Amino acid sequence: MHVSSGRWLYGLLLALVTAVLWGILPVKLTQVLQVMDPITVTWYRLLVSGLILLGYLAAQRRLPRLRPLGRKGLALLGLAIVGLIGNYVLYLIGLKRLTPGTTQLVIQVAPILLLVSSLFIFRERFSAGQWLGLVVLLLGFGLFFNERLNELLTSLSSYTTGVLIVLLAAVIWVFYGLAQKQLLTLWNSVQVMMVIYLACALLLSPWARPLQLLELSGLQAGLLLACCLNTLVAYGAFAEALAHWEASRVSATLAITPLVTFAAVALAASLWPDRIRPEQINLLGYAGAVLVVLGSVLTAMGPSVLASWRAWRAPPTSQG
To answer: Taking the model in full, what pTM does it have?
Structure first.
């Protein structure tokens, strides 16, 4: 069983780096999507990331072999590839219909769905604290969408369609996450991601339109490159954070990602009002976003929170 190094401050900083990179990603993507279609953006992101990882593993002489996978491993690899393609493309399609903050908040259900699915597949247990976190998260979503609940529940508007598409992206990501979790017993994380990235790029090639790159402005081309590198750096920092800090605490830190997105949108809208639109959310909606983050933290750290509460409530032991 993996044991963290105990360098919690280093792990915290790495987790914060990941949260910031994931938080600003949709803001950058909205600018690129003004010219490129979602499939081509995804193709470039996966191809660039996969080629960089291929070069790294080749230099280290650690390229993965397919033979150890067997039929079961190949099936899991196929599931992970389809899951990642679906998640990336659907996320961008939803982002074209929604604001960055709303998209990032809705996709927050993905790790929660992964935790819930682990109850049935890996026979993991949900503590009382985690169930509480799930309730808080659902309440937060209700408050966040308070102004558009009627629209979401009664009509299939562009906004409702966008929310449903991002929710579908979150569900598909769960299949990817479960498959990748099993693949990590056969390959390391870098090998898994390299194969998945390149396989996804290959499958998307017939529908990608690479020449759209020539239509981008200098700023948009730079943002596309930043989006390509974002995945590598963010996931690298995430993996390294897990090496130095407990997974529950890393996950709890990453729960702030939607708040980072809201802050990034507000800052970008103030600096470039002609390019970035501010989020149109009332105070109750922002309170809901905070509750979603709080619910995510409770769900990630439910067992730790419950154990700390019991320890605090327990009577002191006598000495002497």
So the answer is: 0.84
- Residue 224 resides in a domain: yes
Percent of the chain exceeding pLDDT 90 equals 41
The tens digit of pLDDT for each residue in 3-36 reads 455 676 787 888 889 889 989 999 999 999 999 9
- Look at residue 69 and tell me if it is in a domain: yes
Say how many domains are in the chain. Answer: 1
- Whole-number pLDDT of residue 43: 96
Report the 10 Å Cβ neighbour count for 293. Answer: 21
pLDDT higher than 60, residue 312 = no
- 3-class secondary structure for the chain? CCCCCCCHHHHHHHHHHHHHHHHHHHHHHHHHCCCCCHHHHHHHHHHHHHHHHHHHHHHHCCCCCCHHHHHHHHHHHHHHHHHHHHHHHHHHHHHHHCCHHHHHHHCCHHHHHHHHHHHHHCCCCCCHHHHHHHHHHHHHHHHHCCCCHHHHHHCCCHHHHHHHHHHHHHHHHHHHHHHHHHHCCCCCHHHHHHHHHHHHHHHHHHHCCHHHHHHCCHHHHHHHHHHHHHHHHHHHHHHHHHHHCCHHHHHHHHCCHHHHHHHHHHHHHHHCCCCCCCCCCCHHHHHHHHHHHHHHHHHHHHHHHHHHHHHHHCCCCCCC
Q: Report how far residue 120's alpha carbon sits from residue 144's, in angstroms, rounded to the nearest whole number.
A: 29
Let me know if residue 319 belongs to a domain: no
pLDDT at position 319 is 43
Q: Is residue 316 part of a domain?
A: no
Domain region containing 72: 8-300
Q: How many CA atoms lie within 13 A of 185 on its CB side?
A: 10
Provide mean pLDDT across the span 40-63.
94
First to last CA, the chain: 38
